[in-house]
Amino acid sequence: MVAPQLPHRVTDGFDGLYGLEVTDFEDGVVRARVEVRDELKQPAGLVHGGVYCAAAESLASMATYLAVQADGLTAMGLSNHTSFVRPILAGTIHAEARRRHRGRTTWLWEVDFSDDDGRLCATSRVTIAVRQPPAAG
Amino acid sequence: MVAPQLPHRVTDGFDGLYGLEVTDFEDGVVRARVEVRDELKQPAGLVHGGVYCAAAESLASMATYLAVQADGLTAMGLSNHTSFVRPILAGTIHAEARRRHRGRTTWLWEVDFSDDDGRLCATSRVTIAVRQPPAAG
Amino acid sequence: MVAPQLPHRVTDGFDGLYGLEVTDFEDGVVRARVEVRDELKQPAGLVHGGVYCAAAESLASMATYLAVQADGLTAMGLSNHTSFVRPILAGTIHAEARRRHRGRTTWLWEVDFSDDDGRLCATSRVTIAVRQPPAAG
Amino acid sequence: MVAPQLPHRVTDGFDGLYGLEVTDFEDGVVRARVEVRDELKQPAGLVHGGVYCAAAESLASMATYLAVQADGLTAMGLSNHTSFVRPILAGTIHAEARRRHRGRTTWLWEVDFSDDDGRLCATSRVTIAVRQPPAAG
User: Which of B92, C25, C88, D88 makes a 20 to 30 Å CA pair with C68?
Assistant: First the structure.
């Protein structure tokens, strides 16, 4: 994995399935967006909470991995705590991940999600483990 | 929404997109499964953390909603904290949601995820708000 | 409870026991400090994680309560998620609570803790429920 | 640190300050209690949320440490997420910590708190890092 050309619409795997598009990528800050469509909703017509969780997990993991791989290390999600404060029904989900801590074995990220009016809709705390890759890897 | 005929493969929205199938539904306990496929993975080939988060969110929300709607109330996710302890690469993700608290305004669920060998792979704590529906609803 | 004269060293209850001192109090931001002493430590000589949790809980609850009591409402902690990123062994624990969301029924706070060198040592997400007080109250 | 004679009232540090008494200690399960007194309360007269957090942190850390120290490893709290579901005003806080995962680098515990009537009052998820001790240690 190398740092993507931006904006980068992920086409593979789960990020491709729900539609993650990375728009900015700096050291310690990553921004992305997801276009709302019916396939991302829960039965009441709101964006499903799992979409925010997934995007937060991806941004934090990806940014940690891209930073530590040069040292032969790998990154793996330890926990994801997402709080939902305002529903989104249409438009675009805007995500901004900010690194809060860069430890030897653990990185901590806060990921904020806002709607097209810039209102906070969800916020995630994602803890990423930095580890030696499996011996066979 | 009524209690589903079981097993119930969700066909709409985000639950349909990633493939949630509800297999058991009792008061306070819900079980479900998700078949692993490439579209549910992250770049390293493991099931994406967001899949666990999404399934936990759905089971807790659905079970709370089905229980409180008879009283004219609605249910909405407040927070989802998922810890990842072992990756899944293939087979089926097995989910079991258990209600830990049934309050007047807040329900608390623990959702465990295991692989085909019965090993714990992730666990979520999901907090659901129980509220009066919006006036217009 | 009224907004305290600052700096305010709490003398009663648990906040008095561990030694919370509120130093700044604005709408949406509260700052406080706790002096490290042996009675606040765990067996390895570090400040006990519970001290950070307790201070975060107090700042978020207190600030929410002072804001909503004029409307006859009360505030009560729903959850406290504290991540520990760097130990403190001596000196002063500096806390800053910032409100992230001010909803009708739920307020969300982030509380950062730093040491005397300004390094992030712990961070808490605290969710406070805003409710009608019990009928008899 | 060795496994304590039980029941064991901690006399030092923060656990001594708020009054932790360990009553049972098996592999993967630890039980303890804390006697409620005015010094453990918040301004509204309920047991302060930080007391539950602190006890959860101690039980999970202590049990992990006692298990891994024979291998020359140390244990350190990574995160503590405590949900509050019912207040306690008097009597005894009963805690039961159960290990949910025992990984090479991370252990996961759930700690339930109940009142004298056996009702769930709070529940914590505590993540403990297992690490090589600092070189100089």
Answer: D88
* pLDDT tens-digit readout, A69-124: 999 999 999 999 999 999 999 999 999 999 999 999 999 999 999 999 999 999 99
Interface confidence (ipTM) of the complex: 0.95
Q: Does B119 touch chain D (CB under 8 A)?
A: no
Residue-wise pLDDT for D89-107, tens only, equals: 999 999 999 999 999 999 9
The domains of chain C, with CATH numbers, are 8-131 (3.10.129.10)
User: What is the spatial distance between Cα B99 and Cα A98, in angstroms, rounded to a whole number?
Assistant: 33
Query: What are the Cα distances from residue B89, in Å, to A13, B42, B92, D36?
Result: 13, 10, 9, 48
Q: Which amino acid is at B89?
A: L
CB A1 within 8 A of CB A69: yes
CB contact at 8 A, B106 and C128: no
Distances (CA, A) of D46 to A43, A128, C68, D37, D38: 38, 35, 19, 10, 9
- Using the structure block, give the residue that is written with the tokens 């009702």: D119
* Residue pLDDT, tens place only, C9-55: 998 999 999 999 999 999 999 999 999 999 999 999 999 999 999 99
What are the tokens at B76?
Answer: 């909405």
Instruction: Look at D79 and C81 and tell me if their CB atoms are within 8 Å.
Output: yes
Any residues with CB less than 8 A from the CB of C5 and at least 6 apart, and which? Answer: none
The contacts of residue A96 (CB under 8 Å, 6+ apart) are A29, A30, A31, A111, A112, A114
**Scanning the structure block, which residue is given the tokens 């829960």?**
A42
Distances (CA, A) of D86 to A66, B132, D112, D121: 44, 21, 12, 4
The strand pairing partners of B50, in sequence order, are: none
Identify which of D41, D29, D22 has the alpha carbon closest to the alpha carbon of residue D111.
D29
Say which of A21, A26, A39, A57 is annotated catalytic. A57
The amino acid at residue C42 is: Q
Find the CB nearest B41 among A14, A49, A51: A14
Instruction: Give contacts of A15 with chain B, Cβ < 8 Å.
Output: 42, 48
What is the crossing angle of helices C49-68 and D49-68, to 10°?
160
Is pTM beyond 0.80? Reply is: yes
